[in-house]
Amino acid sequence: MNVLAICAHPDDAEIWCGGTLAKYANRGDKVTIAIATNGEVGSATHTKEEIAEIRKGESIAAAKVIGADLLWLGYRDEFFFDSEDARLAFIEAMRASRADVVLTHWPEDLYNPDHTITGRMANDVAIMTTVPNIKTASPPLAKIPIVYFIESVAGLGFQPEEYVDITDTFEAKKEMLAEHKSQIGDWLQDQYGSNAMEMIEITSRFRGIQCGVLYAEGFIRAKAYPRNIAGSLLP
């Protein structure tokens, strides 16, 4: 199976679905991580150009932990909008990865507008990926991918409908996040008072308690004709 995580910022996929991506990779599925924005505002000391390049390198290193491919879309951090160009880029990301499953932000994640827009747009364009008259570099998909929404930041307002047991991949999740050195140190702590490593430990443990395992990640599947399914495509 081909799995695409399409997230707003470098480190989002690792924080909110890294354990699930590692689980897909471990069973032999092809995993791709697409990042909508370049992370250029994520530093108080580097220029936009410098931190964007640093964060791209960190994202490549994090993807390598589980053998995932990386698609860097490069839109402006904090100024990402739903546009024709962005929609075509998302469609191409799904087509290029030949996605059967797409993991993306919950559209009600109000932490950051980049999250909200990424989740809504990824869900909106999924149905367009099979349409021949919408042209991108890659050919149309044969089947509309199934979309799963990942956790909101701190789980606020998010009630999972499905869970993935990531007990056996939680260390890989931490290893992926650890590659984002520019973020898990001073930036997130100084900007938001947030310890990202602590956050994934607490959130994953809480979701694990909810479903009877040690560590878990929670998801809500997008339910829309003609792309709903019986059962689950989560690992």
Automatic annotation (TrEMBL):
Any one GO molecular function term: hydrolase activity, acting on carbon-nitrogen (but not peptide) bonds, in linear amides
InterPro entries found in the cross-reference section: GlcNAc_PI_deacetylase-related (IPR003737), LmbE-like_dom_sf (IPR024078)
Origin superkingdom: Bacteria
Protein name: PIG-L family deacetylase
Organism: Paenibacillus sacheonensis
